[in-house]
Amino acid sequence: MKLQILKIGRPAHQAYEELAAVYSKRLKPIWKIEENFLKAQASQERSGKDIYARLGWNAQGVRQDSQHMVIALDERGREFSSPGLAELLQKTMDQGHIKSLSIVIGGPYGLSEEVRKGADVSWSLSKAVFPSDLAWLMVWEQLYRASTIMRGTSYHHD
Fold first, then answer.
1. Assigned CATH topology for domain 2-150
2. Which one, of 1, 118, 134, 7, lies nearest residue 56 by Cα?
3. pTM (2 decimals)?
């Protein structure tokens, strides 16, 4: 399964990118990963149009590819434990008809309502709100943790 991590805006500090690179390197043998940064726009609506293009949605935000699953990071979304995220990813891969998965992380103003509604899953990292750069880094770590849970390696401890 191809995995895309899509973030609005580049991280403000190089330290975030360096830490994310550690997890990216660990994940490359497991999943085909593509990372994309979109220019932060002055409004969620303008950013949403850029997201549509990267997700293969039409200009109205309608999905064009039924084999592409989208997870939107949103504070109002569903919280997953690390094993719960691993289970979601494993079920997605086991379905067979899903060929690619995109995780979309908003910028300072979050994601537009249209992007949140168009996503298959809305994922909240916590009841707390985090800066988008920190949330992006946490997604990388959680994906790596989920992959180790799925493979039964010792990174995650119950």
1. Alpha/beta knot (3.40.1280)
2. 118
3. 0.91
